[in-house]
Amino acid sequence: MSEPQAKPKMSKETLLPLLAAHVIEHGLGGASLRPLAKAAGTSDRMLIYHFGDKETLVRDLLEYISGVYSAALDMAIGSDRATTRQECFARILALGRGPQMQPFMTLWWEIVAGSARGIPGYKDAAEAMMAKQLIWLENQMPEDDPDPAGGARYMMTLLEGTLMLGTVGHARMAREGLLASGLADPAEGD
Amino acid sequence: MSEPQAKPKMSKETLLPLLAAHVIEHGLGGASLRPLAKAAGTSDRMLIYHFGDKETLVRDLLEYISGVYSAALDMAIGSDRATTRQECFARILALGRGPQMQPFMTLWWEIVAGSARGIPGYKDAAEAMMAKQLIWLENQMPEDDPDPAGGARYMMTLLEGTLMLGTVGHARMAREGLLASGLADPAEGD
DNA sequence: AACGTAATGTAGCGAGTGCTACAAGAGCTT
DNA sequence: AAGCTCTTGTAGCACTCGCTACATTACGTT
Fold first, then answer.
1. A77 — pLDDT class (breaks 50, 70, 90)
2. How far is the CA of B9 from the C1' of D26 (A)?
3. Which terminus of chain B, N or C, has less C-beta within 10 A?
4. Which bases of strand C sit closer than 7 A to a protein CB?
5. Does A21 or A7 have the greater pLDDT score?
6. Å between A43 CA and D14 C1'?
7. Are B70 and B128 spatial neighbours (Cβ–Cβ below 8 Å)?
């Protein structure tokens, strides 16, 4: 018995991390109860038992994922502020493009799409995550910045555009735009 | 017989516009053969007959939609150039936020999500549409602009970020960012 | 008119969907 | 020990999914 099996209690709280892991890897739209249950070591029967129905499950799952994202941002916060906007932007861009962030980014666009289509839990989660990210960025702004609030919002907008263009194969276009804006350093690699 | 029924020939070419209309309204991910067929006045049987399988159908459909988008941009091109970057940006932003554009934008985020997940036809379509939009923007740049190429790419990035933040409920954040960037006019409404 | 190919209708298959009915086990209280 | 509630397993229902086998019609060519 090398595996303790972790049989006893099962609740939303114990299930959500396992479900989230599956969803981050395989996506949210195509997720159906039986594969989800298998990933969490349960049955579809129990998922319905704990969450009531699938819509509630998805909503709770998105809320949980949003919380995980928020916590991840807290972890990634450097104790030292950036000294320039360029450095600040480079930091958050590197964060969003990091390889360990990629599965999450794939899920993120699905959340945006669901948000646009009005699927119940999506917009709330997306809104929360963007709000959290804005706070993160504000805390990373240079102390002597003349307009930290506006600057952070400006950089958020530019960042999201950059990430989007990157995912559809136009990373070069975004980069050249950033160069023209002065926010990217010509010396940096792609 | 007020309806001529349009029974005779049915081919990819005659089906694609009808399929596209359905997809633009109801989305691409959840689209299944039978509803698609019904929207096009056929049967699932015939869709498979004409396209081979669903993956090919989706690919052809995305390619077609990309073409429609391209044509729509050509139509929307004003004969007069903008005189300032602000005006240029305002034009394309208004274009993307126009009410008749909204169903398409909803579909767009689905395309981005599919592109991120690597679903066969998605990335090609997204890439083509962004390329086309960049050309459009370049043609709208002020004639005396010091860096039309870089400026257009910069505005593209900012535009896409703005649209994305808007769909997830953070239009205000994007607007305040644009104000800080100098690309938005404080006098304009939301 | 006969033939051959393209186009279409009908029926269905096997798999998967969300969800439910029913019953049995587990653990706690009295 | 009896009862009680919480949790779980087994089957299954009604439905949709992409796709196919088979048969029929429509139509141009010879």
1. confident
2. 11
3. N
4. 7-12, 16-21, 27
5. A21
6. 20
7. yes
Residue B98's identity, in one-letter code, is G
pLDDT category of residue A7 using cuts at 50, 70 and 90: low
How far does Cα A43 stand from its chain's mean position? 27
- The predicted pLDDT at position B80 comes to 84
Of B109, B159, B170, the CB nearest to A113: B109
Residue B120 forms contact with A (CB below 8 Å): no
- A164, A168, A96, A176: which is closest to B154 by C-alpha? A176
In this structure, is the CB of residue A128 within 7 Å of any atom belonging to strand D?
A: no
pLDDT for the residue numbered B7:
53
Integer CA distances (angstroms), B59 to A144, B64, B114, in order: 51, 9, 12
- Residue A165 and residue A190 in contact, taking contact as beta carbons nearer than 8 Å: no
Cβ B25 to strand D below 7 Å: no
Task: Return the structure tokens found at B139.
Answer: 């043609």
pTM beyond 0.90, yes or no: yes
**Amino acid A184: pLDDT:** 84
Instruction: Identify the CA nearest to A14 among candidates A77, A69, A60, A72.
Output: A60
Tens-place pLDDT, residues A102-160: 999 999 999 999 999 999 999 999 999 999 999 999 999 999 999 999 999 999 999 99
Q: Which nucleotide lies at the shortest CA–C1' distance from A49? A: D7
Verify if strand D has an atom below 7 Å from the CB of A34: no
In chain B, which residues have their Cβ closer than 8 Å to the Cβ of A147?
Answer: 180
- How far CA B68 is from CA of A1, B8, B128, B163, in Å, comes to 61, 24, 11, 20
- The answer to whether the Cβ–Cβ distance between A127 and B151 falls below 8 Å is no
Query: Which residue among A29, A116, A165 sits closest to B105, beta carbon to beta carbon?
Result: A116
Judging contacts by C-beta atoms under 8 Å, the chain A residues touching residue B170 are: 127, 130-131
How is residue A103 written in tokens? 């599965």
Among A163, A151, A161, CA closest to A98: A163
The closest of A180, A171, A134, A188 to A156, measured between CA atoms, is A134
Our measurement of CA A40 to C1' D7, in angstroms, reads 16
- What gap in Å lies between CA B139 and CA B155, rounded to an integer? 13
Residue-wise pLDDT tens digits, B88-116: 999 999 999 999 899 999 999 999 999 99
